[in-house]
Amino acid sequence: MNLMGLDLAWHSEKNPSAAAVGRLDKGILSLEDLEPALFGLGDILAFISNQPLLTGIAIDAPLIIENQTGQRECEKQLSRDYGSRKASCHTSNTTLYPAAASVDLSLALKDKGFGHLALAQWQIECYPHPAMIECFELPERLLYKKGEVATRKAGQIALASLITQLASSPVLVLEVPESFSHTLSEDYIASLSGQALKSNEDALDAIFCLYIAGLYQIKAPGITYGCDQQGYIWVPQVQCISWSPPSQEKYAQPYGN
Hints:
DUF429; alpha/beta; globular; 7-stranded mixed β-sheet; two-stranded antiparallel ribbon
């Protein structure tokens, strides 16, 4: 069966979203397609429509927003569990996002038969930071999204190393073919700057969202914060590598800008 991970841009008409597609077969999830630059819901839905036999999609974005102010209850609950590990949630409400592209996407997927938290054809909202903490037994979230360029590169290299280790996971093997392996290469990441660095970040997020989709499909242990009426986030609760993860400090090289 085919699965997808989608790193949806907060403003998807202006900023690129990234999607990773993989095939799950006999306990092995194989990356088959990676698109780091989809602009707008039209491009995203067209990309989804072109995937044959797509069973499930894990999306890093708020799919259900019913509250007018404050945080969704699922965001509050998750932040209580992971806030001390620097993995709190962003705030989603209809005042901040009166016409959220993520909600429109979720509704379009529902019309195509993708039910929330379903068993046959499904969509789930995920959040990579706490999922990484659980899957890789991290003390806190990886710093690969903000800060100095050197910090972001170090974070991406650490994340890429962890994703690479999933090739030997006792829970769910992730196979990344040679055609996409540069995304996980330390030398390649070290060479990036500007938009290219951001694009690789999005690609890594999409690959990890795909892995979350795989964990959901194989019914790995997980927690659902919230509900499918007011909003939810599914977080896996399983260690997916069998040795100590690398320290981000190991990769904190002065790459410069």
